[in-house]
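Design job #97: recover the sequence.
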């Protein structure tokens, strides 16, 4: 991934050195397990543990000749270890090291991803409670519908974030699987107890049954979960983009001192952070599709998945990590305009109460079809003549027998629409408001 979208903490987990270190961690764990079984002499293990190292530049040089990255890696390690290196990689095949090392990198990345997820959730929770009672108009199809609060809108995002955290935890667990089962998964040249010991040391779960590779449904679940989470962040970003439109302007991304929005128009303040998040979510959806394509491999293994994972492994983790922190920073500093929300809420001259009038008429005995027609007739006059909805209803001779002036006024009470906000918050946040 390009540096622009790479936080140093996550980028450090996906360097060439980091990959080779994960491979070395697997090889050393295997040596220790084999030593316990008496297959590696104690003095040889001590030498291996003391001297085992690699040189990424040297590995690249060797790979130019041998055209095999794992062999090049093992050759570099052998150059550091010396004669005892003959005990390294006993009974293993390349995928044992590559797949288990990949699992280590993904699990280590998962730690940072969970930290990012938690930061995002904290920002959402704080925003939701701050604006629990901030009135605004709810929209369907982009058109004014009925009153809500901005806090309710954010609480919906919080509930989704709760599910996304569960998805992420599950996906990290799924992909944290190791394998040391040999060339075709039969353990012909290495005992299953070695796999168990190595996975236990590395904090991985042994694959129940493998071929020459770990089954890629695990990886598809992981990258799929990242795509879903990115989609949820995009959902927030798209909403902010709409709310920042000049005609709406109910919320706005932070605009720092010295920031410039356009090379041509000095007045511009654009939702660039949200637009960036929208674009990055598209990347993660693409990576998820690639991971799904990797599930089906030929027989016990081919390498059609390898080139894909060399790209999407680091890129997806780095992009997801970046999205978490960009979205968090945006939400932590989001500018909300409650007065503008109220102004927009009243723009439709009372039309947003049409459903309550409809229901009141039916409760008073009018047939629903008749009530709908009567209410809609006045509503269309508001659309066409910019009239006041309640005033039109008050003089409608078909409504007067059912609703008096006081009853009609009570139907235009904003509090009616937000009376259950506390109950909704109690469902989303059963532990109450964080201190």
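Job complete. Output follows.
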């Amino acid at each position: 991934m390009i540096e622009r979208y790479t936080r140093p903490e996550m980028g450090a987990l996906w360097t060439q050195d980091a990959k080779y270190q994960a491979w070395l961690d697997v090889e050393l764990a295997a040596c220790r397990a084999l030593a316990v079984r008496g297959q590696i002499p104690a003095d040889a293990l001590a030498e291996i543990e003391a001297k085992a190292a690699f040189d990424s530049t040297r590995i690249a040089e060797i790979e130019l000749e041998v055209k095999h990255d794992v062999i090049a890696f093992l050759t570099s390690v052998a150059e550091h270890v010396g004669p005892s290196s003959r005990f390294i990689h006993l009974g293993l095949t390349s995928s044992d090291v590559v797949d288990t090392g990949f699992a280590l990198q993904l699990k280590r990345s998962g730690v940072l991803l969970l930290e990012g997820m938690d930061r995002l959730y904290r920002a959402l929770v704080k925003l939701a409670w701050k604006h629990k009672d901030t009135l605004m108009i709810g929209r369907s199809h982009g058109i004014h519908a009925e009153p809500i609060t901005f806090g309710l809108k954010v609480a919906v995002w919080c509930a989704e974030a709760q599910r996304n955290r569960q998805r992420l935890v599950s996906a990290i667990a799924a992909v944290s699987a190791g394998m040391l089962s040999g060339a075709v998964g039969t353990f012909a040249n290495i005992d299953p107890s070695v796999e168990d010991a190595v996975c236990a040391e590395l904090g991985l779960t042994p694959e129940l049954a493998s071929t020459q590779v770990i089954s890629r449904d695990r990886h598809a679940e992981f990258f799929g979960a990242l795509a879903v989470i990115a989609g949820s962040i995009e959902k927030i970003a798209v909403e902010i983009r709409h709310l920042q439109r000049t005609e709406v302007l109910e919320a706005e991304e932070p605009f720092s001192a010295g920031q410039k929005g356009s090379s041509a128009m000095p007045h511009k303040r654009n939702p660039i952070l949200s637009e960036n998040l929208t674009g990055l979510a598209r990347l993660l959806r693409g990576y998820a599709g690639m991971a799904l394509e990797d599930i089906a491999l030929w027989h016990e293994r081919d390498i059609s998945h390898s080139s894909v994972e060399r790209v999407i492994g680091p890129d997806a983790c780095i992009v997801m990590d970046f999205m978490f922190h960009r979205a968090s920073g945006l939400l932590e500093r989001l500018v909300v305009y409650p007065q503008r929300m109220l102004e927009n809420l009243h723009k439709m001259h009372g039309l947003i109460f049409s459903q309550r009038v409809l229901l009141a008429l039916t409760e008073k005995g009018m047939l629903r079809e008749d009530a709908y027609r009567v209410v809609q007739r006045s509503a269309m006059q508001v659309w066409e003549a910019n009239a006041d909805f309640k005033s039109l209803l008050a003089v409608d001779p078909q409504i007067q027998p059912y609703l008096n002036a006081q009853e009609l006024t009570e139907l235009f009470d904003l509090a009616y629409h937000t009376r259950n906000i506390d109950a909704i918050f109690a469902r989303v946040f059963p532990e109450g408001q964080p201190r």
